[in-house]
Design brief:
Mean pLDDT: 82
Distance between the termini: 57 Å
Order of helices and strands: HHHEEHH
Strand order of the largest sheet: 1-2
Number of strands: 2
Helix content: 55-70%
Number of domains: 1
Length: 150
């Protein structure tokens, strides 16, 4: 059963971190000028916002999945961005799992459809083609004057 306390917990989990990330992006955008540092800062801040938003939504799915007992073992691990390994002594341990941005978005759509009963479709063929270039652009922002964009 969904209680008011549960909904408050979800609202706080979404609202507070999301608002902080959004404020960072707004500030970085306001500080953009002609120097490369401010442009790099904006792009990095924007992608931190995107990845942070994905993380927040995965936490919401995790909480609802626990509430409704609808989490598979795989989903429980992936929603927490972790995997499991065995060390040389035969002891299992949890390890952080990095999921590529594009795969993470696809997974979030699929798992939120399953856990939250949504019917969302992700169109990766958008006209801006950001989907295929998002991560490489974020990681290849020029750092030196001689590497500036045209």
């Amino acid at each position: 059963m969904i209680t008011i306390e549960f909904l408050k917990k979800i609202a706080i989990a979404i609202g507070d971190p999301f608002n902080v990330l959004l404020a960072d992006v707004e500030l970085a955008e306001a500080l953009i000028d002609e120097n490369d540092f401010s442009k790099r800062n904006y792009i990095r801040t924007y992608f931190a916002f995107v990845e942070g938003s994905i993380f927040i939504m995965k936490q919401v799915c995790f909480e609802f999945g626990k509430l409704f007992n609808s989490l598979s073992v795989e989903d429980a691990a992936l929603l927490r961005d972790c995997t499991f390994e065995v060390n040389d002594k035969g002891i299992a341990f949890e390890q952080v799992k990095y999921i590529k941005l594009q795969d993470n978005v696809k997974y979030l759509v699929n798992v939120s459809n399953k856990i939250l009963g949504l019917n969302q479709v992700l169109d990766t063929k958008c006209p801006e083609h950001w989907w295929d270039t998002a991560t490489p652009v974020a990681r290849s922002v020029p750092k030196r004057k001689r590497d500036r964009w045209a």
